[in-house]
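Q: What residues go here?
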């Protein structure tokens, strides 16, 4: 991987091989869980969560206004904007790059007007107008692979060779950005753990992290925190998957993943710091 920096809006993030991976903290704004059904408490809660992540050493804050868990219905555009935009404005000057987890071109445009630094698209910028929405900015762009649609993707994921097919998909999207004239130093790739993949598919991809990085020659983001692939090995429910998630993060880091997307920032930062201190000479980095 030749790239030294990920151009990310107001920031240039170091993604040099051998460095400790960056930690992306997940910040969800979903008012459904608040008794007043309104956005005020959700906003307050999200801001204090962000402050805690910053204290815990987060490198990128990933703001999401729509749950893309399997089977959950999509959020209308206006509702997503109402959830996400106030948070972008509230956190704009927090000192950390803000990533927006969305596949809607309209949300991308609004977020970029508000100075968002990165667009993280689980749909790989395949929606009509998605590439146009981001191409003239300087934002970082995370291109993720997904098979099918969030509502139905886990029903029957099928691949002949999951690693080949994910790599080919990502290469096609990288080429689409090249054709659009987008600088390569803005791009990172993501195999999309859990997005239209069985447990076996997910582990085949995790075991081939290094191969994906070499094939695409771009920084790789890995998001496995608390996902069902962790539950499948540990047998633990969602709220007890921290240790398993850290195991997955280290497996990806050891193969050169440069951004790890997690719920538990403090614990992941500690784990990666200790892992890195112990490995830096051992694996010749
Ligand atoms: C991912 C994501 C991921 C990227 C979600 C969850 C589901 N974005 N957004 N990669 N997952 N880039 O966090 O469980 O794996 S939402």
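A:
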């Amino acid at each position: 991987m030749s790239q030294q920096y990920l151009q990310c809006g107001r920031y240039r993030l170091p993604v040099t091989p051998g460095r400790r991976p960056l930690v992306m903290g997940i910040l969800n704004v979903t008012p459904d869980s608040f008794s007043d059904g309104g956005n005020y408490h959700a906003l307050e809660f999200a801001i204090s969560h962000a402050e805690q992540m910053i204290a815990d050493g987060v490198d990128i804050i990933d703001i999401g206004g729509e749950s893309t868990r399997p089977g959950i219905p999509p959020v209308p555009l206006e509702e997503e904007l109402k959830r996400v935009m106030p948070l972008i404005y509230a956190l704009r000057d927090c000192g950390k790059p803000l990533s927006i987890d969305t596949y809607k071109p309209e949300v991308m445009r609004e977020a970029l007007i508000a100075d968002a630094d990165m667009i993280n698209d689980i749909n790989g910028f395949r929606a009509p107008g998605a590439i146009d929405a981001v191409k003239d900015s300087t934002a970082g762009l995370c291109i993720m692979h997904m098979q099918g649609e969030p509502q139905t993707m886990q029903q029957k994921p099928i691949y002949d060779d999951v690693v080949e097919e994910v790599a080919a998909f990502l290469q096609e999207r990288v080429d689409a950005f090249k054709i659009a004239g987008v600088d390569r130093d803005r791009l990172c790739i993501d195999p999309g753990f859990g997005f239209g993949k069985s447990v076996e598919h997910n582990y085949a991809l995790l075991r081939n992290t290094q191969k994906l990085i070499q094939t695409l020659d771009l920084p790789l983001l890995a998001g496995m925190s608390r996902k069902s692939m962790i539950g499948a090995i540990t047998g633990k429910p969602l709220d007890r998957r921290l240790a398993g998630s850290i195991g997955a993060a280290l497996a990806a880091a050891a193969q050169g993943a440069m951004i790890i997307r997690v719920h538990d920032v403090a614990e992941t930062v500690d784990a990666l710091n200790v892992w890195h201190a112990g490995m830096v000479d051992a694996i010749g980095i």
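A: Context that may help when evaluating the design: The chain is about 40% helix and 15% strand. Residues 26, 68-69, 101, 120, 122, 142, 144, 190, 192-193, 221, 223, 227, 261 surround 7PJ (CB under 6 Å).
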